[in-house]
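Archive record
______________

***
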Amino acid sequence: MEYPKINSIWKRDETHEFIEGDYSCQEFSAFKTWRVEEKIDGTNVRVYIQNGKIEIKGKTDNSQLPTKLISFFNQDEFMSKVCCFGQKPVELFGEGFGAGIQLGGIYRPDIAFILFDVYMNGRWGQREEVYDVASKLGLEHPADLGMMTEEEIITFVKSKPKGRYNSNNYTMEGVIARSEPLVRFNDHGNPVVWKLKVKDFKRSGYKNHE
């Protein structure tokens, strides 16, 4: 399964500026608060686990992943833990990140994997379930920034907040906002999730939708 596309909160005009208030998906208007996490800059990775074996893929089936990233999953410490799921299939979604991947040197000097979503038992995991899987596998997950309103999220991202990973002094790439509890879009059944990046506000401004 390929990871669903995460839309920005608002639509953009022909110059790629946000049109404030014109939601990219109508479901976004239905929620007053959102569960927010730090957005990590890396490369998409999918890990399929079943019967103690793993299959590693990138964003698409043809994506090439760095050799050092593949080696991360082949470590004995990680492989010894995947059997905890037994025969039921589990699919992990996350980012390969660290030095050599995008601007990942701001996070850590080596390459690793950070978990941000899990698909198992025929559904997407709630945040606590994702964190539980991360704990079982000895994986990290993005910083949980708690519940925020849309206005609070926008103000937070505009402030160019410092990232929370590893206590390094870097500007956060942005945030991922999820419905809480996690619900699905009516048209395709994927989780209701949106993103907002710090760089989205480095432009001249954004339009109001009337």
Remarks:
- Helices lie at 67-73, 76-79, 127-137, 150-158.
- The chain has a mean pLDDT of 91.
- The CA atoms of residues 20 and 208 lie 5 Å apart.
